[in-house]
Specification:
The chain is α/β, with parallel strands linked by helices and 233 residues long. The chain contains 9 helices and 12 strands. It has a 5-stranded parallel sheet with strand order 2-1-3-4-5, with helices on both faces. The chain has a 4-stranded antiparallel sheet with strand order 6-7-8-9. A 3-stranded antiparallel sheet has the order 10-12-11.
């Protein structure tokens, strides 16, 4: 059964062109010109993924993202036309699963869509006992999108969650920045180390008692990072 993609953009030509290309790629595409209409469509028949422009008339894309992720948990890929908007998305880390800057190559966007859908599918197919990961005092449950640290629930944005999961599956070993980029963001991000450093800083603020003196995610100068499990107290 074809995956349903909702395209939300106020540019009619963009909507029509992208919908056509997605349908040619085997998806079912619906469109909305604004966030309000998009939220109604999501409520009526939840899509498998939403492609959401940030700069929308009326309710903007950031507010729409909060509602879509908060109420439905639907994966979202942001479209952004200006570098300022991209910085805002990365800075706020509100929970988008990925972002693509305009103008973009349709093939690149389709590859990103498939990657986001594949990650969700792989997680849902895992038996519950295999999906839960316990490393030291951290528990990660991808099916429930839940993380606890020393028994306390911690709320993580999607990239932070995937980054922590990548570390926890390879504890005690050095993981290079390019390896993290390929595993968490995709091979097309290799060569953008600042993306990793920013997200690691945010992640440390949520799981480290003293983020400036991290014990769980340790920097190995010139090599990368290492996840050090902490004993359960």
């Amino acid at each position: 059964m074809a995956k349903r993609i909702l395209i939300v953009d106020d540019d009619e030509l963009m909507r029509r062109s992208l919908a056509f290309n997605l349908e040619q790629a085997g998806f079912e595409a619906n469109t909305a010109a604004n966030a309000e209409d998009a939220l109604e469509l999501v409520a009526l028949a939840a899509p498998d993924l939403v492609i959401l422009d940030i700069g929308l008339p009326g309710m903007d894309g950031l507010d729409a993202l909060r509602r879509i992720r908060g109420q439905y948990g639907t994966p979202v890929i942001f479209l952004t036309a200006r570098r300022r908007e991209l910085d805002e998305v990365v800075g706020l880390e509100l929970g988008a699963d990925d972002y693509v800057t305009k103008p973009f190559d349709v093939d690149v966007l389709i590859a990103r869509i498939k990657a986001v859908l594949r990650r969700g599918s792989e997680t849902n197919q895992l038996p519950p006992e295999q999906s839960i990961l316990r490393v030291g005092d951290i528990m990660i449950d991808p099916r429930a999108y839940l993380v606890t640290v020393a028994g306390e629930a911690v709320e993580l944005a999607p990239r932070e969650f995937e980054l922590l999961h990548a570390f926890a599956t390879d504890p005690g070993h050095i993981i290079t920045v390019d390896n993290l980029l390929a595993r968490v963001w995709g091979a097309e991000y290799v060569g953008q180390p600042q993306v990793v450093s920013v997200h690691i800083r945010w992640l440390r603020e949520k799981i480290e008692p003293a983020p400036d003196q991290p014990r769980r995610i340790v920097t190995v100068r010139g090599k990368g990072y290492k996840f050090v499990p902490q004993e359960v107290k």
